[in-house]
Structures are given as C-alpha cells and as structure tokens.
Amino acid sequence: MKKLTIIIPFILLFNTSLSFGEEYAIAPFVEAEYMAYDELRLEENTIEIYPNNQMTYEEALLKAKAENKLLMFSIRATNCKYCDRMEEETLSDITVVNRLNENFITLYYNQDEDQLPLNLQPNMTPNFVFVNQNEDIIDISLGRQDSDEFLELLDTVLMESI
Predict the structure, then answer these.
(1) What tens digit of pLDDT does each residue of 87-137 get?
(2) Same-domain status, 34 and 67
(3) In what order do the strands lie in the sheet with 137-142?
(4) Could you tell me if 26 and 87 lie in one domain?
(5) Residue 97 domain boundaries
(6) In the predicted model, what is the mean pLDDT of the chain?
(7) Within 10 Å of residue 70's Cβ, how many Cβ atoms?
(8) How far apart are CA 149 and CA 43, in angstroms?
C-alpha cells in the first residue's frame, strides 16, 4: 500500500511534466490558431476607433456634432498590460462595441507617441476621456474596467451629457 502511494504521486508528477512539454512543443501552432480566432472575433466586434493619424481631433469634433454624438479619447501607453487587457476583453465585448458605436466618436491615442488634445497631460493608463460637442470634459476614467463597469461608466457619461 505504501509503494502504491509513492508511485501515484510520481506518475502524476511525471505526467504533468510531459503535459507541459507537449504544450510547449505545440504552443506556436496553438498561438497561431488563437490569433486567427482573435482576428475573426475583432472583425465581428469592431469599435469605430480612429487613430489620430486617420482623423484629427477637429475632424472628430465635426463628426460628433454632425452625428449628435460625444467624443471618447481612448488613451494608452506603449507597454501597458492593462491597456492590452482592456482592449482584448472589455472593448471587444459586443455590448460595449454597440454602445460606443451608437453614442461616441472614439479617438485612439498612445500617450508615449501622440500629442493629446485639449492640453491633456499623460496620466495613468488606460485612460478614457469623454468630451461633449462644446469641448467640455464630461468625465475622465482611469484604469482597466470589465465590461459591466465600463457600460455603467458609459451610461453615466451619457446621462451627464444631457
């Protein structure tokens, strides 16, 4: 009985290490498969985000006025893991995507590379700045949020803008 008890943990340990080895060996293929899935998912759930090199702040403001929408600046930093998670998880959620596309013109800025509009200064990221058509800042939200928290923020911003 004692021998069996000793052998079982050894077998479990051995199988676990084999499993890690197999996962490592196929990781490039699995990663490529996930990347293809993410690209497909992002094509289906796409926020109309305009990098500042595709649409200037002034153009976005005119578009917001023409479409009766608010502006949202999505501000990130180059090596920000929380920004990556926010983009991958929250900003790809279909409910968030729909709410943003319906009510906001979204401009994307990398605070390490881009000059921020309205004399905004680099800050903690991710950072979301909400601006009305009169160029008044309605709200600033710092940090990563899950989909429910972000939807609540969007609802609050929409109510404050009325």
Answers:
(1) 999 999 999 999 999 999 999 999 999 999 999 999 999 999 999 999 999
(2) no
(3) 49-51, 104-110, 70-76, 127-131, 137-142
(4) no
(5) 47-160
(6) 77
(7) 21
(8) 24
